[in-house]
Specification:
Shape of chain B: globular
Helix content of chain B: 55-70%
Number of helices of chain B: 8
Largest sheet of chain B: 2 strands, antiparallel
Radius of gyration of chain A: 32 Å
Strand content of chain A: 5-15%
Helix content of chain A: 25-40%
Distance between the termini of chain A: 105 Å
Largest interface: A-B, 67 and 56 residues
Oligomer: heterodimer
Order of helices and strands of chain B: EHEHHHHHHHE
Shape of chain A: elongated
Largest sheet of chain A: 5 strands, parallel
Number of strands of chain B: 3
Number of strands of chain A: 13
Number of helices of chain A: 16
Radius of gyration of chain B: 22 Å
Chain lengths: 376, 216
């Protein structure tokens, strides 16, 4: 079986060559066949989501997603992928819960809808009772071996929790404070990030996580640090419009504040990635996305004001400076009119009882006071 | 008959003879002056480079690696000067920059003076209440901005607690921008009041001495 070090090497090598699964799946399939590794029982629950992460996961090319499902993992419940539906599907879910406690991996896709007890997001029928996503995720999360939140919605709330967040959506970690949730953020999450993390869990347990609970092997560096256009940034060569081939920092690229390995892994079977097609990174893997990252064409987030108005940070900054300038000029004008400036300057600058006047003495070219100091 | 006094003697001697109203008193110790000018220079560079890093100017073609380097280097210098000032304040037991309750009480009177409702400012300590609040906030915010700067400099490898507390890189960036706007709004105010209220403070920040006016 692969050692963990070899696995990590394959993660990076696979990112460079674009064949992560080709590299990882043969030894893994052998290990599964030899009984060294058990097939991972996986349950995927979708809550407040667009199912984008499932579509992203389905975009694995070699081997195909079906290869992974049949040879490497025991993908037990996933309403987008499974053929069974209704009670039959729910039975599988219930069976996993009852018979495999602390064995299965719970994958959550989508934000947790909290408003009104989660009743804006029903995910199953238990007999005649509607089960909310909130309830199901909590119930399964407490019994799962690992809890993995895929996509920005599940990890941090994502677009579903965007301002003004009417459904009070949030990330899985917030409703499962008892458990450590592994976040695989992204809108959507890259298939390599999802499968790589699952494989690491199967082979070596929990990967090393970074500050926001994401695996360091995929989210250890900023996009900016690995960007192929970094030399443009360092030299101050910037695109002035989206679509140009220089550094996109000035048009709002969030690469400097976004942790992901997109620059080396790229998307669609390593075909391209946003900056590769001259559009700025929108920071979809970061907490606070999309509110903190929008507008996508500006650095700083817009500030919401009561009434739904949003103002850009730069405008607020300029406004403050304008107000200060106007206040200073206005105060100076009034002070001059009232004579305060003149009075203050005289008070602080005239130091003598009488101004000493000088007269040039021609003979020795020395200056002397016309009036001695002590003469009153 | 006119008598002439030679001006070749040091001016200070003449002034001591009683030609000056009031007296010269030591007002700003050397370390305070070193801090002031060093911090002013550092802050100027930090603000200018920070604004350039935030929003590259169209009319400047600067090497961003060097701009970032200058930003970081002068931030360290700024921190050094703040450390000198804090150490000096501790050694001399100088609490002139720490706001007190009395400052809060005199602050409305000071504002009344600035908006022309009073003819003279209220009596104060070494610095008036407005100065104390602004100077204290500058040091505090500079330390906060430095902490955030270090957090972003280490990119989540250290100071992870700060990172989590703040809520991410983008929020951190926004806070630093807000702090820089605060500095940019209050520094012109400082310069304006310095030049129009009492020039002897500027003199004291250069020579160390301030002329204390005679009691009326």
């Amino acid at each position: 079986m692969l050692s963990r070090r070899d696995f990590l090497k394959l993660v990076v090598k696979g990112a460079m060559l674009g064949n992560f699964y080709q590299l990882i799946s043969p030894p893994l399939a052998q290990a599964v066949a030899a009984g060294e590794v058990n097939k991972l029982p996986v349950v995927m629950i979708e809550t407040g989501t667009c199912t984008g992460d499932s579509i992203s996961l389905d975009n694995i090319w070699t081997p195909t997603f079906s290869d992974i499902l049949s040879n490497i993992v025991d993908w037990r419940y996933d309403w987008s992928m499974m053929q069974a539906h209704g009670d039959a599907a729910y039975q599988v879910l219930q069976e996993t819960y009852d018979k495999m406690p602390n064995e299965f991996i719970l994958i959550v896709q989508g934000a947790m809808i909290q408003r009104d007890g989660g009743h804006y997001n029903h995910v199953a029928y238990d007999g005649a009772k509607l089960i909310t996503g909130l309830e199901l995720v909590r119930r399964f999360g407490l019994k799962a071996k690992y809890v993995v939140a895929i996509g920005s919605c599940a990890a941090y709330g994502g677009p579903v929790s965007g301002y003004p967040n009417p459904s009070q959506a949030t990330g899985v970690q917030n409703i499962l404070p008892e458990r450590r949730v592994i976040n695989i953020s992204g809108c959507p999450a890259h298939p390599d990030w999802i499968m790589g993390t699952l494989l690491h869990l199967a082979l070596y347990g929990e990967p090393e996580l970074e500050k926001y609970g994401r695996p360091k092997l995929f989210y250890g560096e900023t996009v900016h640090n690995r960007c192929p256009r970094r030399h443009d940034y360092d030299q101050g060569i910037f695109a002035t419009e989206i679509g140009q081939k220089e550094c996109l920092f000035r048009v709002g690229c969030k690469g400097p504040v976004t942790y992901a390995d997109c620059p080396i892994r790229r998307w669609n079977d390593r075909f391209n990635w946003p900056i590769g097609c001259n559009t700025p990174c929108i920071g979809c893997t970061e907490p606070g996305y999309p509110d903190l990252m929008s507008p996508f064409s500006a650095h700083s987030p817009d500030i919401p004001f009561p009434g739904g108005t949003k103002v850009t940070t730069d405008k607020i900054g300029l406004g403050v400076l304008e107000i200060t300038s106007v206040a200073i000029v206005g105060h100076a004008a009034i002070s001059l009119y009232k004579g305060r400036i003149q009075k203050n300057l005289l008070k602080s600058s005239v130091k003598s009882r009488h101004r000493p006047s000088v007269k040039k003495v021609k003979t020795c070219h020395q200056y002397r006071l016309k009036k001695p100091c002590n003469e009153e | 008959m006119k008598r002439y006094t030679r001006l070749r003697q040091p001016t200070i001697k003449q002034l001591k003879k009683g030609n000056v109203r009031g007296q010269f008193i030591p007002f700003q110790p050397i370390l305070v002056r070193v801090f002031h000018w060093g911090f002013a220079l550092s802050l100027t560079v930090i603000l200018l480079t920070g604004l350039e890093l935030h929003h590259p100017a169209n009319f400047l073609a600067l090497n961003f690696g060097k701009v970032l380097m200058a930003h970081i280097v002068f931030s360290w210098f700024g921190l050094g000067f703040v450390a000198i000032r804090i150490a000096d304040a501790i050694v001399r037991r100088d609490d002139s920059l720490i706001p007190k309750i009395d400052d809060l009480k005199t602050f409305p009177k000071l504002i009344a003076y600035y908006i022309f409702l009073r003819s003279s400012p209220p009596p104060s300590r070494k610095y008036n209440s407005g100065q104390v609040f602004i100077y204290f906030s500058w040091i505090l915010l500079f330390l906060v901005a430095s902490l955030l700067g270090l957090t972003s400099y280490w990119q989540g490898k250290h100071l992870i607690g700060v990172w989590r507390l703040v809520g991410g890189f983008q929020v951190l960036r926004w806070i630093k921008f807000t702090i820089s706007i605060y500095f940019l709004a209050t520094i012109p105010l400082h310069l304006y009041l310095l030049l129009t209220e009492d020039l002897s403070h500027l003199q004291a920040m250069i020579t160390g001495y301030e002329r204390k006016p005679p009691p009326n």
